[in-house]
Amino acid sequence: MNKVLPTADAAVALVSDGATIMMGGFGLCGIPENLIRALHKRGTKGLTIVSNNAGVDEFGVGMLLRTRQVRKMISTYVGENKEFERQYLNGEMEVELVPQGTFSERIRAGGAGIGGFFTPTAYGTIVAEGKETRVIDGKHYVLERPLKADFAFVKAWKGDHVGNLVYRRTARNFNPVMATAARVTIAEVEELVEPGQIDPDHVVTPGIFVKHIIRGALYEKRIEKRTLRGG
Question: String of b and e for 80-117 (b: at least 16 CB within 10 Å)?
Answer without folding.
Answer: bbebbeebbeeeebeeeebbeebbbbbbbbbbeeeeeb
